[in-house]
Write a structure and sequence with these properties.
Largest sheet: none
Shape: elongated
CATH architecture: Up-down Bundle
CATH superfamily: Fumarate reductase/succinate dehydrogenase, transmembrane subunit
Number of strands: 0
CATH class: Mainly Alpha
Length: 140
């Protein structure tokens, strides 16, 4: 090999790194990505809170006395917040799931439609959760 080939300068290659946790606040995700992440979070939330709901259901169905006890148990503010979190998780997961099913039919895949459908999912899930919250906390 000639000496000129051995001493050829190497080109600087660009460095591509993954996003670090400390850089997350600087990274701007599109609305569709946020809805997708919330879809996963709501699925995990429903899965984690499912034993709590099943426990309440099982014990409330034992007798009228146990139903009255758990009816009083559900009036605690912390329990209401847990039920409200589960309600949000259900509405978010359901609406985002319907959005994904529609997208599986190749409808609304362009950037503008995806942004509109993700905003619609967020608005609908938050409005439905707010209505349940108003009912749960006794406004109507």
């Amino acid at each position: 090999m000639s000496e000129a080939v051995r001493e050829a300068p190497k080109k600087e290659r660009p460095e591509f790194r993954n996003i670090h946790v400390t850089e997350l606040s600087n990274y701007r995700m599109p609305l569709a990505a946020i809805v997708s992440i919330l879809h996963r979070i709501s699925g995990v939330l429903m899965f984690v809170l499912l034993p709590f709901v099943l426990y309440l259901l099982q014990n409330s169905l034992r007798s009228e006395i146990s139903f009255a006890y758990y009816e009083g148990f559900v009036t605690y503010p912390l329990v209401k917040l847990i039920i409200l979190a589960l309600t949000w998780g259900f509405f978010q997961h359901f609406c985002a799931g319907v959005r994904h099913l529609v997208m599986d039919l190749h409808v609304g895949l362009d950037k503008h439609s995806a942004r509109k459908s993700s905003a619609t999912v967020l608005v609908i899930s938050l409005v439905l959760t707010a209505l349940v919250a108003l009912k749960l906390f006794g406004v109507f």
